[in-house]
Model the fold of this input.
Amino acid sequence: MQWIQAIQQQFSQHKYAINAKILGDDAAYAWTNLGYWTATTQSYPQACRQLADQLAAAVALNSNDQLLDLGCGRGASVLHWQNHYKIQRLSAIDVQAPCIEYLQNHLKSNIQLYCGSFLNLKNILPEQGFDVVLCIDAAYHSPLNSFLDSIHGVLNSKGRVGFHYLMWSEKWQNLSKFEQEKYRLLLKTVDIQIENLHSQADLQQMMQQHQFDHIQIDDLSEPVFLGFARYIAQQKKSRKYDHFLDVFKIKMTAKLCNKLYRDGLVRYIQITAQNMQ
Done:
C-alpha cells in the first residue's frame, strides 16, 4: 500500500509545489524557477540566480530600496536579495502555506513574510509604499490586469516593478480556431489561461493604462524555455527518485518549454516598468 500513500502525498501538495532536489537544488532554502541558462551556466541554482539577477539589473535594484518579493517559494530569492543586494527592508509573500510557515520558523532575520495571493496585496500587507516589486517566474498564472491592479496599490510614486510573463508572437493570429483550442488545452495543464496572454502591443497598452512608463519588454525565450528543456534532457537518466509524480511533472514541464520554444507561438518575457504617479 506504500504506492497509494505516495500518490496521496503527491496530490496533497500545492499545485505550484516543486521538488527542488530533482531539479538539482538540495539547499534548505531552494530555488524553484525555470532559470536563465547560458553557455557557462554550471548548475540549476546558478541558472535560477541568473533569472533573478536579470530582473534586479533591469530595475536597478539597490540596497536603499524597500522591496516586495511576490511568490517567494522556499526562500532562495529573499535570501539572495538580502545577502547579495544587501536589501534591509524586505517583505515577501507566497500562496503556499508550508513554504511561509517553514521560513517563519527557520529564518532568523527581519524579513516580513506573508501567506496569500499576490492579487490581494492591499488586504494582506499592513504597510504600503514599496520602492520595488519583483515577481520571478510566477505572474503569468494570473490575469495581467488583476496583477497590475494589486501591485499598483502598494507601489511608491516612481516605484519600479519587474516580473516574468508570457506573450503571443505574431504567429498566433495565423492559427486556426482548432489549433488555438489545442493550445488552450495544452497551457491549461500548467494552470495558464490563454485569455491571460496578449500581444506585445496589447501588453504595452495595458501597462500604460495602469500608469506605468519606462516600459521594457525583453524576450527571454531561448535562455529560459530552451535552456530549461535542455537541462532536464541532459540530466542523467540513471538517477532514481522515489517521488515519481514530481519527476513526471518536471519532465512534462521541460517538454512543454521545448514545444513552446520550437513552435514560436508563446514567448517568455521579462517586463519592467516605473510607476508614473
Observations:
- Residues 160 and 274 are 4 Å apart (CA to CA).
- The longest strand covers residues 155-168.
- Residues 244-263 form the longest helix (20 residues).
- The chain is about 40% helix and 20% strand.
